[in-house]
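FAQ: What does a ligand-bound record look like?

Like this one, built around 2-acetamido-2-deoxy-beta-D-glucopyranose:
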Amino acid sequence: MDRNFIIRLMLLLGVALQGESAKLPSFLKVCYRDSPNLNTCARQSFEALRPRLMEGIPELFIPSMEPLVVPQVKMDQDSGAIYLHSVYRNVKVTGISKHSVNELRLEPSKLKFIVSLTFPKLHMESAYSIKGKIMMMPLLGDGHCQVDLINITMRTELIGQEYQKDGANYLKMNEVNVKYELSDVKIHLDNLFNGDKALGDRMNEFLNENWKALAEEVRPLMTRALKDILSSSVDKLFSSFSYDVLLPKGKGK
Ligand SMILES: *[C@@H]1O[C@H](CO)[C@@H](O)[C@H](O)[C@H]1NC(C)=O
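The answer part, i.e. the structure of the complex:
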């Protein structure tokens, strides 16, 4: 059979199945909006979901987390203390499954959802291309890079707004705020300065010695990138499932 035909058929089926009242997958423990134990329930639900979460849950638009593969991250800045144009392709992040949960709080009255996680170590590898100037030093390279983030705590706050679609209540996340703190960073960029090994070694040394100042300089770019990565999953999740399905009204059983 014609390949295009199959793809079209699958798309049609997908649209038909979505319908107006998409149901949550049955393995999800449902929590009730007005339950006095909402946050305990949310935490239990998250814990129960964790193994699947790491494999990815296509029904909930959650990609595989171990490893998490991001096709492309762009970080560009032309103003302020840094001038940086960089692209990271095929970014592979490992270590996400080894997190601990510091905080998981749902505040339905404010349509606010907070999650704070600590990752002992996140390892990232990607192809990179960088051109710019950072802390007064020219930076130029194109190759493979590895970054280790040690003891990173990431707090994400979502603030939504209700709207009507097909006669049901949905949420749209107006704010996706991401904040992070970390204890150490190890960076290695291959093939800096067109493969000049001496210059490249010196730059890597410089980057590792100055990681703290550097991390502050790229914080707005990192935050923006994290926000974009999170938003794409979050937007799909909330536009596919109504609020009443995600977090039903009532106190529960
Ligand atoms: C990890 O970072 C937090 C701050 O975000 C800090 O309080 C804690 O002491 C750090 N732990 C280690 C093992 O470095």
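Follow-up question: can I read anything off the structure? Yes, for example: Confidence is low (pLDDT under 50) at residues 15-19.
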